[in-house]
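Lab notes, practical 5.
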Amino acid sequence: MTPIPIRLRLTLWYFAVLSCTGIILCTSMWLVLQQSLQHAGVVWPAAFADQPQVNAAHVVEFHAASIALMHLFVRDLLALAPLFLVLAAFLAAWMSRKATNPIAELARLARQINSNSLNLRLPVSRANDEIAELAMTLNHMLHRVDSSVRSVRDFTADASNELRLPVALIQTEVDTALSAPRSNEEYREAFANVHQEIVHMSGLLDNMLMLARVDAGTEIVSFEVVDAGQLVRRIGEKWSASMRQALLEFRVESCCTPALIRADVVSIERLLNILLENACRHTPPGGSIALRATADTERVLLEVCDTGIGISGEHLPRLFQRFHRVDASRSRQMGSSGLGLALAKWIADQHHATLIVESEFGIGTCFRISIEQQRSHETRSRKTLAMAGNF
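Output from the prediction step:
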């Protein structure tokens, strides 16, 4: 069944209201007229019973005049009824059009907005009414949609560029190796270069898949109570060999007493691994990196500090954006995809943690993660569906 348009419904409603108002008005006029005739001694002959000078002829005459006047009033009402109904219909149509024109204008302008013109906004009237509130709400929605679409487009363009470069390098290495006979050492070098690009692509695709799950809201995070000190020591043992190979001094400092936090072990380990990988990548040989876990009465603080090249101030506001690199050419040579810190920020948000960075160019960088401390060891663990945040 096709629904009745709002404008037609408003017209019928206004027409009904105006018609009922006219009927009530006419009825009121009838009652007032009748009451006036009654008080004037025209309608009811009994009013003249105590007046001998008024004979029966006068009573009949007054009664006939009363009936004629009432009949004339009814006749005039019936004659004017069609005109009144027509005027009520026109007035109802005008009122409904006046009420729905702003909505129709908003709908017309909204139909002109497409994926290529999401920057357009609907006009907001100066009147502080529901129509203005509707226009502002739609504009806020368009802003969010525009931001999301722009983010998807930027992500697609950046991801395409990131994947195109390693594929081109692999193709170049393979073409070079197949162009002429080579020695075993040359083939080994070519295979090593191809392997390096494949590892870079694998890490990039892994991060992209996780971000896709994050954006779709399907990334599952399982929370449980863990000891931050044990977590830091375990991660430190895994990184000690890599740090020695990179000629870096690596220190792991943890609490003597248990520092309990409610976290997803896999995610929090990934967050710390991302920060340690960045620190290792941007700290020259001979530098130092520290991984710490400290606690006070309310919060647990996880820190990854280095004495690397540091980050200039203009890059700090965009540091957690996807594909943002402080030094694009240098990061690309070191295998950075520009997605790690975006994932780190999302993981911190899922843990209701605060992730802050302090850096001074040429001196070093320190990432700090502040998580609420658990008072007692909870044995329960529950799974929650982690929703993606805005980076």
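Observations recorded by the TA: The chain has eight helices and eight strands. The beta strands are 219-227, 249-253, 260-263, 288-295, 299-306, 354-360, 364-372, 382-386.
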